[in-house]
Amino acid sequence: MDPLEKIKTIFEKYTTSYHFYLRDLVNNKVYEFGRKKRYPFCSCFKLAVLMAYFDSLKDESELFEEIIIHPEKFSPGGGIINYFTTPVKFTYFQLAQMMMSFSDGTATDVLIEKSQLKLISEKIQSITEDSQLTTNLGTMVKTFQVDFLKGKETRSENIKNAGKESIKFNYTNAEDLADLALSASKYKNNQFYNQLLRTSKQLPRTDLFFSESTKFIGKTGSLGYGFFVNDCGVIEHNGNPIAVLGYATEGWPLLKELVELKCGVIGIEILKHFGINDINNRFNKLSENLIE
User: Fold this and answer.
1) Per-residue pLDDT tens digits for 184-218
2) Which of 4, 263, 276, 288 has the most CB within a 10 Å radius?
3) What is the C-alpha separation between 166 and 282, in angstroms, rounded?
4) What is the per-residue DSSP string for the chain?
5) Do the beta carbons of residue 150 and residue 117 sit within 8 Å?
6) 78 vs 250, which has greater pLDDT?
7) CA quadruple 255, 140, 16, 262: dihedral positive or negative?
8) Residue 11: its pLDDT value, please?
9) 0.85 cut: is pTM over it?
């Protein structure tokens, strides 16, 4: 089966709606399928937070200023800071690392406050055609949780309805995600910015099975226990950017961990499309076959 057709088959089998956008950066050819509509932004907006934070810096020394964060200021969502029960002290550079590597909610909201939500929103609007961010991460997650918990339908219907409420405030689509990732990759030739943008992710998705020769420079995101899953990034092979990718999805019925596996398979198929066959040793065909 053609690699892109296999990707389409995965999305159509396991999601209720999806939008996929892949642009070849060598010949500028675009491959797009699915439904272009508004999807929850999830954590992909953190690329804009990173850019806006570096916009706000007057001097690089500010990266290494320390801030004490008390438990009452912790934000819900993913990450590691919520595991602490006492005040924590980090530099802003460390918080940016946690935002990019662990998608940490508290780290993200501290950086949003530092960079100003209005300026982050303007950054997104200057790059994308139809994406919006009007709340910080904590508000996004709390609103979603409240709408999910007050639902009277099945679990999946409650999550879907909570997602509908979420996109009233924060939304995107696959093409916009690709544009955001491409802009982030070109934004600033700065050693600290580039280190943060390229930092290893705790939970890789599309690049789960990429070998060392291939890099995925971007940000992933999910909401509703893996019901909504997005990913975006620039694909580099042997140091050369070859493509930019974005996808936004909803309705995954699988356990979140199995969704990660399927996203990794999507990454393999994208590499096949470009004639790249080297993947890492984590891939296990038997595991993939278990959920075919």
Assistant:
1) 999 988 999 999 999 989 889 999 999 999 999 99
2) 263
3) 35
4) --HHHHHHHHHHHH-SEEEEEEEETTT--EEEEE--S-EE-GGGGHHHHHHHHHHH-SSGGGGG-EEEE-GGGPPSSSSSGGG-SS-EEEEHHHHHHHHHHH--HHHHHHHHHHH-HHHHHHHHHHH-SS-EE-S-HHHHHHHHHHHHHT--S-HHHHHHHHHHHHTTTEEE-HHHHHHHHHHHHHS---HHHHHHHTPPPSS-STTTTB-TTEEEEEEEEEETTTTEEEEEEEEEETTEEEEEEEEEEE---S-HHHHHHHHHHHHHHHHHHTT---B-TT--HHHHHTT-
5) no
6) 250
7) negative
8) 98
9) yes
Has residue 272 got a pLDDT over 70? Answer: yes
Under the phi-then-psi rule, with left for phi > 0, alpha for psi from -120 to 50, and beta for the rest, what region is 116?
Answer: left
Residue 24 pairs in a beta bridge with: 243
pLDDT tens for each residue of 91-135:
999 999 999 999 999 999 999 999 999 999 999 999 999 999 999
